[in-house]
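$ ./design --mode recover --in tokens.txt
reading tokens...
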């Protein structure tokens, strides 16, 4: 039986604004095998920007 961490690994989402701000979250490998891009709030630039998955 697969472990919980195997199916939903922890990933870092890094801001595309160049501030270096990151969020840590989990994702499903089965549903999203590609790199994740999410629009989230970056407090250093005080606006919503795209956050891309780091590997």
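writing sequence...
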């Amino acid at each position: 039986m697969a472990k919980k961490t195997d199916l939903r690994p922890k990933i870092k989402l890094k801001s595309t604004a160049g501030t270096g701000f990151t969020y840590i979250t989990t994702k499903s490998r089965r549903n999203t095998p590609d790199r994740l891009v999410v629009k989230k709030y970056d407090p250093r630039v005080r606006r919503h920007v795209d956050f891309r998955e780091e590997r």
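exit 0
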